[in-house]
Write a structure and sequence with these properties.
Layout (H helix, E strand, L loop, with lengths): L5 E5 L6 H15 L2 E8 L10 H28 L4 E7 L2 H11 L4 E6 L4 H7 L2 H8 L4 E5 L8
């Protein structure tokens, strides 16, 4: 057994998540750990959708986005022969990430951050920040190298 056995890697499929995925895969390879790749659909953010027909199309698009995001993790892990469990969840992302890590004995959460600061972070919120504040397991945030951080 290594220091880490189960590394939880939430992803939204964005470019900002790639450095975190790569970092998580390297850690998993070194510690002989498995990765639990999470994609969380935030249904609350869809409350303004006007009709049920629109909701069906959005739901399909989100499912496809989730599949693509999770495959990104699986492909990166395959290069280093790291096992991956793909998990799709629904709810508030920060809550689902923390609950999953807790309920499945996660040893570490590795997630990307866009590096927003100041007013951008205040207006948009930060899933990574909420996870850091509420998780009972260590959280490693990896900033997108292309992000411009501001205070």
């Amino acid at each position: 057994m290594g220091l880490y056995d189960r590394i939880v890697v939430p992803t939204d499929g964005s470019a900002a998540s790639r450095p975190a995925i790569e970092h998580a895969v390297e850690l998993a390879a070194v510690h002989d750990a498995e990765i639990h790749a999470l994609y969380v659909i935030n249904l609350a953010s869809l409350s303004g959708v006007p009709t049920e027909g629109s909701m069906e199309g959005i739901s399909e698009a989100l499912e496809q986005e989730g599949e693509t995001a999770l495959e990104m993790v699986t492909e990166a892990a395959a290069i280093r022969d790291v096992p991956v469990e793909q998990v799709r969840l629904e709810g508030r992302p920060s809550q689902q990430i923390v609950a999953y890590a807790t309920d499945h004995d996660g040893d570490l959460i590795v997630m990307g951050t866009h590096g927003r600061g100041g007013l951008d972070r205040l207006l948009l919120g930060s899933v990574a920040e909420r996870v850091v504040r509420s998780a009972t397991v260590p959280v490693l945030t990896v900033q997108d190298a292309g992000a411009e951080f501001s205070d």
